[in-house]
Amino acid sequence: MARPGGRSARVQESVHTAVRELTAEMGREALTVPLVAARAGVTPSTVYRRWGDLQELLSDVAVERLRPDSDPEDRGSLRADLTAWAEQFLDEMASPPGRAYIRDALLGDPDGANAGQCSAYAAEQIDVVLARAAGRGEAVPDTETVVDRVVAPVMYRILFRPGGLDAGYARRLVAGVLDAPG
Amino acid sequence: MARPGGRSARVQESVHTAVRELTAEMGREALTVPLVAARAGVTPSTVYRRWGDLQELLSDVAVERLRPDSDPEDRGSLRADLTAWAEQFLDEMASPPGRAYIRDALLGDPDGANAGQCSAYAAEQIDVVLARAAGRGEAVPDTETVVDRVVAPVMYRILFRPGGLDAGYARRLVAGVLDAPG
DNA sequence: CACTAAAAGCTATTGGTTTGCGTTTAGCCA
DNA sequence: TGGCTAAACGCAAACCAATAGCTTTTAGTG
Considering only CB atoms, which residues of chain B are within 8 Å of chain A? Predict the structure, then answer.
């Protein structure tokens, strides 16, 4: 993988852009490697060599989209910060596009590197919230505890229990980990 | 879908058997629809029409394999029952074949029906354990609470955090939900 | 400025996937 | 029991995604 500005970087960028555009235009089902390659202005063999197959390419694009673009907002207390973050997290992840990205990220991921990256994103956001609360002098749970008690249940239900998720569920999970830290 | 003994049932059975045999013989990577169809004694078009593609077929087979074959053993107390079940659950699901089945089950599952079935299997097992404990007069948590506090963290880590799972983790999760029920 | 290795373009070929049509089978009602 | 209907399957041709071999371009280096 060359430095930004090199040909490799240009190809990667144009291919990723092609995936995003074509997904928006005609849906995920209609996507095919030759189609993406044509839109990106490269040959299919280039895509196959760099990504292996369509799933791995979609996984790469999905991880990019799941990267949070900013730190959680400071609302003055651990409870308020964590509740707001959890509600937004559930809202984004449980939406149809969010679910599609999660599936794509998990699917074309032979070694689990992309899935690990997604988990790291959530852990980083939680770290920010917890560190801020600790700076205020509040007692804070471990990041791992929050992952187990909030992130994991949300993701589990998104993946295995289609339907029946709302902001209230996220609030209850946060209340549970703050009021009864295991 | 016809009753057992009908042609549809015979075809489904022979195709599923072919998938299991060929997976064991030459690995999941080598599987193709024409290969499975030939082993099953049907034509590829039959498989494509019934299952859509290889992923959906593998998803069906994976769900079958994830079905528990017996109720959890009675060890005399809720804590012992739940701990033993969680340890076995983690052990089976975190193993390479278990992870492969989970991935397959999630993968070819457009409407989430197969994933929901997997979740239902775990909930049923937990229900048995909790009902038995309630029959003894023990105080028991909700099934949903156990799913959130034990099943979800295990599955999340299997899917998003490759590596670093052991029986001790399952024991700590069970202890957490029994000693500090949210 | 030449040199080397990695990456992309090009093309032929393979084989997985789709489709249309005829045939069989299972369920159903008289 | 016997015909009727619709769903499921077999068959075969056509399509197109996927792969591989080879050439050409490009980026980095002495």
Answer: 103, 106-107, 111-112, 115-116, 118-119, 147-149, 151-153, 155-157, 159-162, 173, 175-177, 179-182
Cβ contact B180–A177 (<8 Å): no
Q: For every residue of A32-73, which 3-state class applies, written as one string?
A: CHHHHHHHHCCCHHHHHHHHCCHHHHHHHHHHHHHCCCCCCC
Task: List every span in chain B annotated with CATH 1.10.357.10.
Answer: 65-179
Q: What are A61-96's pLDDT values in tens digits? A: 999 999 999 999 999 999 999 999 999 999 999 999
Q: Please judge whether A182 and B176 are an interchain contact, meaning their C-beta atoms are less than 8 angstroms apart.
A: yes
- Tell which residue, B79, B55, B95, B41, has the closest CA to residue B179: B79
Distances (CA, A) of A89 to A39, A101, A153, B110, B161: 32, 13, 12, 23, 18
The pLDDT of residue B4: 56
Cα distance between residue A73 and residue A96, in whole Å: 24
Show Cβ contacts of residue B21 under 8 Å, excluding neighbours closer than 6 positions: B39
> CB-based burial of residue A175 (10 Å sphere; 0-12 exposed, 13-18 middle, 19+ buried)?
middle
The CATH class that applies to domain B7-52 reads: mainly alpha
- A2 falls in which pLDDT band (50, 70, 90)? very low
If one compares B35 and A4, the residue with the highest pLDDT of the two is: B35
CA-angle at A182, arms to B151 and A143, nearest 5°:
80
CATH of domain B65-179: 1.10.357.10
CATH of A69-179, one of 1.10.20.10, 2.40.50.90, 1.10.10.10, 1.10.357.10: 1.10.357.10
Q: Give the residue range(s) of CATH 1.10.10.60 domains in chain A.
A: 7-52
How far is the C-alpha of A72 from the C-alpha of A92, rounded, in Å?
14
